[in-house]
Amino acid sequence: MSVARAFVRILPALLIAAGAVYDYCTPSDFTAAPFFTAAPLVAAPLYSRRGTALTGLAAVAVVLGLHLTIGIVWHTDAVTELVTVATVAVLAVLINALARRSSEQLASAREVAEAAQRAVLPEPAERIGGFQIAACYEAARADAFIGGDLYAVQDSPFGVRLIVGDVRGKGMGAVAAVAVVIGAFREAAEQEATLEAVAQRLEQALAREGARRDGLDAFEGFTTAVLAELPHGDWVVRVLNRGHPPPVLLYADGPLRTLLPAEPALPLGMGELGPWPDRTELAALPGGATLLLYTDGLSESRDRHGRFYDVEARLTGRVVTEPGALLAAVAKDVRRHSGGGMADDMALLAVRRP
Question: Tens of pLDDT along 118-141?
Fold first, then answer.
């Protein structure tokens, strides 16, 4: 427990003690009521109901004891002070009850949000199709569990297929879009022979959902995404980028390669702007190499000087033996870079060929 937290915990007792000293050492015209009333009010959000009640009783008892000692029990000001402290003590117990109820409701809401995240974004298995897999979701807000970032891994007859994406917007609309994209991806990954066909299925799914919900005002309309495919038996990775930060390859001995698309492409869900031919890029994936896909919560994280997190500079030379350890190190590094105040959610997905 930190010194500050320990001090706050004993603050009600210190206030009562300070009030007692003040009341005893000053003329009867002076009152220490602010000290005695503050003690149970400070205790209300910190202590249990019993602790708050005991603090209030202690304040009342000390006030009454002082009045008896000084001999002013029945003075008008003394009676007013005692009644005031007793009233505030009762109010503090009520405040404590309301605070505890609010805390319980908040805890319940967090449990529901966490369950929703696990349902929409389940953790992938540690090994899929012979590859080591790890995923990480870091919410920008400590009290939030889910947003518009997404990831999924699907083993298929055509290889292990991956998606990392970022839905436009926040809130429940973004969560609904995440569910649509992941559901469509899992189905298309099993059925379509190419990544281009998978991307078109996702495009159609977003278009259908947007039309069903009466357009972009009611539904988050587009999603930046990277699709990747690791064919069984081939030492390559195929990547299709739809307006998303490019993934990186970390080779076993430390070098890094950014898988930039040959041409920029529109995000998924913007097909109404015109036809856009999808193009898959091919790269070698030797043994010990790790493919890292991420959302812009990583690359657009800023430090206190406004500098972006440089993915290439930060990760070049890093030797990866476990994808989970890599993601933990990256998450820690970006929190340190941003001073613990990330501006956007961040999803990370790492796949390593043993």
Answer: 666 778 999 999 999 999 988 765
